[in-house]
Design brief:
This protein is an alpha+beta fold. It is built from ten helices and 15 strands. It folds into three domains: 90 residues, Zinc finger, CHC2-typedomain (DNA Primase, Chain A), CATH 3.90.580.10; 102 residues, no CATH class; 135 residues, Dna Topoisomerase Vi A Subunit, Chain: A, domain 2. 31% of the residues lie in helices and 24% in strands. A five-stranded antiparallel β-sheet has the order 1-2-3-4-5, with helices on one face.
Length: 375
């Protein structure tokens, strides 16, 4: 029986990831929604290893070219050092020949399992979008609020950006929630900038939140985790970012689209005035801009897009030139490979589109450049 026809593969894909984590004795993972994040069982670290229990996939950012990503079978191979056949047997037992009738039955079961899994994922996505919309609707117009002060701290002063877009709002007292022992716990409340994430069809799909403290450097709140004492990220997303953007210049499609990963980077490009007639949309995060890549030995930095990934950003029809802003304060080879993959995907799906990467100086992002090189 060929490996690809082994019915145990479908059986392995039905294994619950949380149960598999326990069975493999992977320790130290923190729960956050569908994500389990913590030290890699092979190379350590603190948060480089993650498991997505909805997608049934794992990833170690340090080991992703050495077997550190994939499905349930790949996880067993990675943790226990087994080859494919041994990992499959560890999960599902020895291989046995089955009849055509039994195979047809298992195929039907696998199709039903996939249908149920997709339905659960869609339901969770809709719930997350509803929660995001509730937060968004609690916000108020950003002009005349600490949002303006925050952006001014970031060098985006009223003289350069006189009118704040409707995709930004202000929340005066937003809870910052983290997962502690499997339960959500609010560890901070305070003012926040809200930014609407819109899907490819223009509909609201999520909210990006930045907690503000104008007494702190660059205006970002300093929030410490009550268990670890480590600083928490001052920015979080809620809802769905699949293919979405923060449309800082509105919904109008223009021939040139400039996109940075974050709001501040994208607004820094806008106020620089190099492309006065362009649209400026923030990509929410690098993964959304880049999408999945074809990976394997020697391919980590080749920037080859996985064209089967339909969740990543693709510019709308009418965009002739797409410019990605590459921050210089992240690992350059990996970041460039991801952006190249994103541009190649966009050009493959939008024939005639031209792609370009605008690179910031090493060690800084575009907002640092705007601020005069401040770190």
């Amino acid at each position: 029986m060929a490996q690809g026809n082994d019915p145990r593969i479908a059986e392995a894909h039905r294994h619950d990831m949380d149960q598999l984590i326990q069975r493999l004795d992977i320790r130290g993972l923190k729960r956050g929604g569908v994500e389990r994040t913590g030290p890699c069982p092979r190379c350590g670290g603190t948060d480089r290893f993650s498991v997505n229990t909805r997608k049934q996939q794992f990833l170690c950012r340090a080991c992703d070219t050495d077997g550190g990503k994939g499905d349930q079978i790949a996880l067993v191979m990675f943790v226990l050092g087994m080859d494919f056949g041994a990992a499959l047997e560890w999960l599902c037992g020895p291989r046995v020949e089955i009849s055509a009738e039994e195979r047809a039955k298992r195929d039907r079961e696998e199709a039903e399992h996939k249908r149920q899994k997709d339905a659960i994922a869609a339901k969770e996505r809709e719930k997350a979008i509803r929660l995001a919309r509730n937060v968004w609707e609690q916000g108020q117009p950003a002009e005349g609020t600490p949002v303006r002060g925050y952006l001014t701290c970031r060098g985006i002063a009223p003289a350069l950006f006189p009118r704040l877009p409707v995709c930004l709002r202000y929340h005066p007292d937003l809870a910052y929630v983290v997962d502690i022992d499997g339960a959500g716990r609010s560890i901070h409340r305070g003012p926040a900038m809200l930014a609407a994430i819109q899907g490819p069809d223009g509909r609201f799909t999520g909210v990006h939140r930045t907690w503000i403290d104008l007494d702190q450097p660059k205006g970002k709140a300093r929030i410490l985790h009550p268990v670890t004492g480590e600083p928490c990220q001052s920015k979080k997303m809620l809802g769905s970012k699949k293919g979405g953007t923060i449309r800082l210049t509105g919904n109008a499609v223009r021939p040139v689209l400039v996109m940075g990963e974050g709001i501040e980077t994208t607004l820094s490009a806008l106020v620089a005035g190099v492309h006065a007639d362009a649209a400026f949309w923030a990509g929410a995060d690098l993964g959304n801009m880049a999408g999945q890549r074809v990976m394997g030995k020697g391919l980590r930095y080749e920037g080859i897009p996985d064209l089967g990934d339909r969740d990543a950003f693709v510019p709308p029809a009418g965009v002739d030139r797409l410019i990605y802003v590459m921050d210089g304060d992240s690992e350059p080879k990996s970041t460039r490979a991801k952006l190249v993959a994103g541009l190649r995907r966009a050009m493959a799906l939008r024939p005639g589109l031209r792609g370009q990467i605008a690179v910031c100086p090493s060690g800084v992002d575009l907002n640092d450049v705007l601020l005069g090189g401040e770190q």
